[in-house]
Amino acid sequence: MSIRRSAAAASLACAPAAFAQSSVNLYGVLDVFAGRITNSVPDTSSTVLGGGGLQTSFFGVRGSEDLGGGLRAVFALESFMQVETGASARFPGDLFWSRSAWVGLAGSGWGQLTLGRNTTPYFLATILFNPLVDSFVVGPMITHTFRGNLQGDTGMGNSLRWTSPNWGGFRADLLYSLGEERSGPPDKDFGKALDGALGWSGGPAAVVFAFRTIDLSVNGNGREQTAWQLGATWQLAFAKLFAQYQRVAEDFAAAASNVDRDTVQLGVSAPIGPGTLLASYAAMDIDDASPTTPAKRDTWALAYTWSLSKRSELYGAYYQDALKQPTANKQTVLALGIRHRF
């Protein structure tokens, strides 16, 4: 046997072992709904075919490589998409890999460290402790958090994220973003953020404390936002209960511009028949110096998911969001859709 043929045979013999040490997976979610959206101010109503009724559609590629000694190289690239139109990302101007784009190292004893655009621990705490999870269409807690309240996205670029291993039910998840470094004062720290979550789960119960601070100063206005959230779940024999309390405070150089927003969310999910009933109610108090802005916001949703398989389900949902005192704007959404995971 020649040296060349011997080398080829050795390469083929080693290929299965090398392949077993690395993995790359393609995955994602496709979610589309038909429905009707009504607004009171202005008085409009429209029938729509929309995306992301229960979850924003996306696809991703994730992989890992065994480096030996319990160390792995890991990566992920994830992009949102609009299935109803075929458009990429969530909206015009959105980043292509806006869901996440990171690479890092993981070890069984110390957790995982990733660098790039990371999903934030605060977002994960928000969606895991409410029954409508991460619906930007019919999710009350998402409305009260990521639709005009909490600043910063569900993912942060220029960031480092460390997630701990499971320490007897306790986990830590911390992220630091370098923001968008500018040339100099007064706004050179714009976008710098510290984001994290500390959680524990055991038996039927789970709790989490999440926090975020982000520098938003523009033209020296000193704007800074601080948020924290406490969430809990309890699994009963017939249903799962959810509760969250959130406080978001914005401070400015001019104290008269300061605003505090407090939200309480209560929810439940219960298996009924071939699917699951989901219900959530969120109430917000808004404290600022302006008499013309709303002082309260109440949002509730009721949904039912009908499982067709482990990966596919039909769903129906009704959602109502109301701003009050003195603004009286109300939006309702009726949605019937399908979600498929791959």
What's the structural blueprint in terms of helices and strands?
Elements: H1 3-20, E1 22-39, E2 44-51, E3 58-68, E4 71-82, E5 87-88, E6 100-107, E7 111-119, H2 121-128, H3 140-146, E8 155-163, E9 170-177, E10 193-202, E11 205-215, E12 224-235, E13 240-251, E14 259-272, E15 275-288, E16 296-307, E17 312-324, E18 330-341
Antiparallel strand pairs: 1-2, 1-3, 1-18, 3-4, 4-5, 4-6, 6-7, 7-8, 8-9, 9-10, 10-11, 11-12, 12-13, 13-14, 14-15, 15-16, 16-17, 17-18
Question: Which architecture would the CATH scheme give at its second level?
Answer: Beta Barrel
The CATH superfamily label reads Porin
Q: Biggest β-sheet, characterized?
A: 16 strands, antiparallel, barrel
CATH topology: Porin
Any idea what the shape is?
Answer: globular
* SS element count, helices: 3
Helix-strand topology string: HEEEEEEEHHEEEEEEEEEEE
Number of strands: 18
The computed structural class is mainly beta
Give the terminus-to-terminus CA distance: 46 Å
The residue fraction in helices comes out at under 10%
Quickly count the domains. Answer: 1
Q: What is the class in the CATH system?
A: Mainly Beta
Q: What oligomerization state is this entry in?
A: single chain
In the predicted model, the low-confidence regions spanning at least 5 consecutive residues are: 1-20
Work out the radius of gyration.
23 Å
Proportion of beta-strand residues: over 45%
- Order the strands across the largest sheet as they lie in space: 1-3-4-6-7-8-9-10-11-12-13-14-15-16-17-18
Tell me, rounded to a whole number, the average pLDDT.
93
